[in-house]
Amino acid sequence: MTIIPAPLDSDLVYIAQIVGGHGIHGVLKIQCFLDNPHDFKLYSPIFNTSGKKYLFDVLSITPKHILARLDGIHDRTEADTLKGLKLYIERRALKSLSEEEYYQRDLLGAAVLNTERETIGKLLHIHNYGAQDILDISLNDGTMLLVPFQKDIVPEVSPDPAHPEKGFLILESDYLASALTPPSHDPKDR
Fold it and tell me: Pick from 25, 79, 86, 113: most CB atoms within 10 A?
């Protein structure tokens, strides 16, 4: 299952961020959050949060960064003034997702149900530290639970793009029980 970052408050989808200048001639270094960084070239225009349009001339793409030029940026100092700028595209410009791919904005706030379809909590955040997506769930009793976003643990996902709070995820009850069982300190249990 794949999660793609997106803001909650608009029809814009967060796809990249300028991390600074590269070299002395105003080239920008951009961190891209798309599954395939080469897709960055497919989207034009790209916007900031206030709706300003940007047209990038992409020079090179690596798995970690995109190097691009932007009209009006001629040296490193000018490029560095854009450091931290978040870049968005309109949601309607996105390619269709395949099965088991989701946008974060469509899942955040969704109800979390157990296998018996009882509401047990709510999805608050989605983290990714490099290995896989981690769901940050607040259970009804206030317990916080981090859950790997894997098909055997989360067998069903039903997002509602228009109203994420109406969507739901099913959390495997056996996993839930084992995750909530405190570890035993009895040497016989080892």
Answer: 79
- Pair of tokens at residue 21: 């200048």
Question: Can you give the pLDDT at residue 31?
Answer: 94
Say what the pTM is. Answer: 0.65
Burial 107-130 (b: 16+ CB within 10 A, else e): bbbbbbbbeeeeebbbbeebeeee
Distance, CA of 26 to CA of 81 (rounded, Å): 10
User: Within the chain, which residues score under 70 in pLDDT?
Assistant: 1-10, 186, 189-190
Alpha-carbon span 39 to 42, nearest angstrom: 5
Could you identify the residue written with the tokens 């951009």? 30
Q: Does domain 2-93 have CATH number 2.40.30.60?
A: yes
- Between CA 67 and CA 78, with CA 88 as vertex, the angle to 5 degrees is 45
Q: Does the structural domain 102-180 have CATH classification 2.60.40.420?
A: no
Q: Where in the chain do CATH 2.40.30.60 domains reside?
A: 2-93
What's the distance, CA 30 to chain centroid?
17
As annotated, the residues of the chain forming the CATH 2.30.30.240 domain(s) are 102-180
